[in-house]
C-alpha cells in the first residue's frame, strides 16, 4: 500500500498552471501553484485577499510570477552566480507523497510539495538536494514549513527566503514594528550597514533592507484596513523589507505603475550566513502569517501586545 491519496482540490487555471486550492472550516482559502511552489492567493473568511499579486504579473513559465509568496532558493537576490532569487521559483514542483518526518497531510487545508535537483540545475548548481514545502491553512493563519535535505556526497551551502507580498490599503498608512534598534544592510546603499533609529518603520519612498538577527515576531500594521499581519518565523534570522516606490515600479515590466501603493514585502530569510548541510542532513525553516483585527477604540493596535502575545 502506498501513501493514502490526499483529497486535494487541484484545478488547472486559464494559464494551464495546475493550482491546489486549500480550504478550512472557518471559510478562509489559499491557492498554491505547482509552478514555483508559489502561494498566489490567501483569502480570509470574509473573502478579502490578503496577498498582493501584480496586475502585470506574467503567468508564463519560465518567468517568475510577481506576487503572493515566492520561494527564493538556493540564492537570494543577486548574491551569487545564479538567476535572481535562484531557480526554485521558476521550476515545476511535484506533490510530495512522503513528507516524513512530518505526518502525511490528508485534509483539504494542507499540501506537501517537493522540488528535486534536475540534470539541468546540476549544471549550474552541482548539488543534489530535495526541497520540501508544506503549506497549511487554518482560521486566520497561513503556515509554510520549508525543508532542504542534502542528498549529495559532499556538504553544500545555500540561502533561503520566502518573499511575502502583503496586500495593504495604502503604503503611506502602514507601519512595521518589531525591527526597531536592529542593524540592517541597505541594498540601496551598496549593502552598507546601519542601525534602525525609528520606533517603527513607515514608508515615504523606496526601501530595500535586510534586517539582521530579527525577533521571531514582526507586526505589519495597516491603519486603514484596521488589520495587522503578524509574521512569526524560525530558522530564518533575517527579515527583508521591500517596496519599489514609483520610479522603480515603472521600470519593472511585470509591476503596475501604481501597484507599489497597495503592497509591501516583508520576507523571512537565511541570507547573510548561508545554511551549511552535510550529506543526509536536513534544514527546516518555519513561517507563520496570521492576521489580527486592530479595530480598537483608539484606532491603533497595541503592538507590544501582539509582539509579546497578550492579545
Structure description:
The chain is mainly beta. Helices cover 6% and strands 42% of the residues. The protein has three helices and 20 strands. It has a nine-stranded antiparallel β-sheet with strand order 6-7-8-9-20-17-16-11-14. Strands 5-10-19-18-15-12-13 form a seven-stranded antiparallel β-sheet, with no helix packed on it. Strands 1-2-3-4 form a four-stranded antiparallel β-sheet, with no helix packed on it. The radius of gyration is 19 Å and the shape is globular. The termini are far apart. The model is unreliable at 296-301 (pLDDT under 50).
Estimated radius of gyration: 19 Å
Largest sheet, if any? 9 strands, antiparallel
- Give the fraction of residues assigned to helices: under 10%
Through-space gap between termini: 46 Å
Number of separate helices = 3
List keywords for this structure.
seven-stranded antiparallel beta sheet; globular; nine-stranded antiparallel beta sheet; 311 residues; mainly beta; single chain; 6% helix
Would you summarize the structure shown here?
With 311 residues, this protein is mainly β.
Secondary structure blueprint with pairings:
Blueprint: E1 10-12, E2 18-23, E3 29-33, E4 39-43, E5 69-72, E6 94-95, E7 110-116, H1 119-124, E8 129-138, E9 141-150, E10 156-167, E11 174-177, E12 183-186, E13 192-195, E14 201-202, E15 207-211, E16 217-222, E17 227-234, E18 238-243, H2 245-251, E19 263-277, E20 282-293, H3 303-308
Antiparallel strand pairs: 1-2, 2-3, 3-4, 5-10, 6-7, 7-8, 8-9, 9-20, 10-19, 11-14, 11-16, 12-13, 12-15, 15-18, 16-17, 17-20, 18-19
Amino acid at each position: 500500500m502506498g501513501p493514502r491519496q490526499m483529497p486535494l482540490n487541484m484545478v488547472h487555471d486559464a494559464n494551464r498552471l495546475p493550482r491546489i486550492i486549500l480550504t478550512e472550516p472557518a471559510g478562509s482559502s489559499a491557492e498554491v501553484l505547482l509552478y514555483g511552489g508559489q502561494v498566489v492567493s490567501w483569502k480570509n473568511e470574509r473573502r478579502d485577499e490578503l496577498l498582493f499579486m501584480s496586475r502585470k504579473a506574467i503567468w508564463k513559465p519560465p518567468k517568475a510570477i510577481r506576487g503572493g509568496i515566492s520561494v527564493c532558493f538556493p540564492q537570494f537576490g543577486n548574491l551569487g552566480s545564479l538567476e535572481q532569487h535562484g531557480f526554485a521559483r521558476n521550476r515545476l514542483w511535484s506533490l510530495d507523497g512522503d513528507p516524513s518526518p512530518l505526518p502525511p497531510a490528508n485534509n483539504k487545508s494542507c499540501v506537501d510539495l517537493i522540488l528535486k535537483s534536475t540534470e539541468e540545475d546540476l549544471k549550474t548548481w552541482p548539488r543534489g538536494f530535495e526541497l520540501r514545502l508544506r503549506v497549511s491553512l487554518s482560521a486566520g493563519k497561513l503556515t509554510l514549513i520549508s525543508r532542504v535535505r542534502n542528498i549529495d556526497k559532499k556538504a553544500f551551502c545555500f540561502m533561503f527566503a520566502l518573499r511575502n507580498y502583503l496586500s495593504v490599503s495604502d503604503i503611506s498608512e502602514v507601519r512595521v514594528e518589531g525591527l526597531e534598534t536592529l542593524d540592517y544592510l541597505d541594498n540601496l546603499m551598496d549593502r552598507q550597514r546601519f542601525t534602525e533609529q525609528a520606533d517603527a518603520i513607515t514608508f515615504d519612498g523606496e526601501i530595500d533592507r535586510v534586517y539582521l538577527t530579527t525577533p521571531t515576531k514582526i507586526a505589519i500594521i495597516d491603519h486603514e484596513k484596521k488589520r495587522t499581519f503578524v509574521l512569526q518565523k524560525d530558522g530564518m534570522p533575517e527579515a527583508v523589507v521591500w517596496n519599489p516606490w514609483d520610479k522603480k515600479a515603472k521600470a519593472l515590466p511585470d509591476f503596475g505603475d501604481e501597484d507599489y501603493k497597495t503592497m509591501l514585502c516583508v520576507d523571512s530569510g537565511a541570507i547573510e550566513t548561508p545554511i551549511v548541510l552535510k550529506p543526509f542532513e536536513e534544514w527546516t525553516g518555519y513561517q507563520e502569517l496570521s492576521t489580527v483585527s486592530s479595530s480598537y477604540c483608539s484606532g491603533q493596535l497595541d503592538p507590544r501586545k501582539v509582539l509579546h502575545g497578550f492579545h
